[in-house]
Amino acid sequence: SGAFFSALTIRLLKGVVEGNTAIWISLLVAVAATAVFSLLHAFACVSLNANHVISGTAINMMALALTVYFARTITGSGNISIGAGLSRSNIPLLSDIPVLGPLFFRQSYPTTWVVALLLLVSWYLLYRTPFGLRLRACGEHPHAADSAGVNVYRMRTVAVLISGGLAGLGGAIVLVTVAGEFSATVTAGLGFLSLAALIFGQWKPLGILGATFFFGTATTVANFSMVFPTFDRIPNGILRAFPYVITLFALILSSRSSRAPLAAGQPYDKGQR
Asked: Helix 2-13 crosses helix 21-37 at what angle (to 10 degrees)?
């Protein structure tokens, strides 16, 4: 959904605004539109106490079907090309740091640093603000939060809105950096890889950062392996599956120590304790 709304916005603004302005506007539109779209999930799970997994799966399938349908209606092909996306650049001064500079600060997308900032903001909100305390309480012990005067239904709805907006931002960033075109396979299952990073990272911002570095490294290894003659005998399908296989092994190894919020995925009924 995020990739679709971003591509549609860029298409509509083409020739109206100059430079990368349309791209940055499209990222904001993607966040807002997917946050609104996620209200379907909030209505099903928070208001109707539906099963979270079934609701999420159904909405993901509906999102894919609807966006491809609208893309075909607009372009006739199911694809929406955005032309040139964001370009990579070096970070002044930081890119000159030995070892770390070439690794992190050279030829990086500006959206990388937007996401890094969001990570810091998320950590601060979760662990240093009353809002974060209430949000975590609604995921751990919603009845205790309710007894303290917290509106659990409202907090959970806000949580779904935020997560929907951030998921849309992820899809839009994939579009404007590496994809360049909306299609049915634009995100290539990266949303489910994000869920794996969440579990592997123990539901904590810094843990998720480490998990995404791990999965990102596995993806990079798989991509670069395809251009080395040594790996010519290995089918491309196996190399492309490498990050997902590594993800499965990582989840298996960390499953025993994994600790989700106690009430995660459980419908909340104020009348039951």
From this structure: 140
